TrEMBL record:
Belongs to the X(+)/potassium ATPases subunit beta family. Transmembrane segments: none annotated. It comes from the Eukaryota. Keywords: Membrane, Signal-anchor, Transmembrane, Transmembrane helix. GO terms for biological process: potassium ion transport; sodium ion transport. It is a single-pass type II membrane protein. GO terms for cellular component: sodium:potassium-exchanging ATPase complex. InterPro entries: Na/K_ATPase_sub_beta, Na/K_ATPase_sub_beta_sf. It is found in: Membrane. This is Uncharacterized protein.
């Protein structure tokens, strides 16, 4: 068997205050038989990414 990386999907519930900001998102695997906390590998069992939030199209080009 070959390893297949998991797929991560995220749904963000945004508010007007979030427009124009960059948000950090971290997804972490949880389970009793899973390793996700290793001092030598801080990304083990997790993925972190940033999302830049633009406003709705009708608000983007306003002065």
């Amino acid at each position: 068997k070959s390893y297949v990386q998991p797929l991560v999907a995220v749904k963000l519930l945004l508010m007007k205050e979030d427009y124009g900001k960059e948000l950090s998102v971290e997804c972490k695997v949880e389970g009793t038989n899973l390793r996700n906390n290793d001092e030598r590998d801080k990304f083990l069992g997790r993925v972190t990414f940033r999302v830049k939030v633009d406003g709705p199209p009708f608000l983007r080009d306003r002065p």
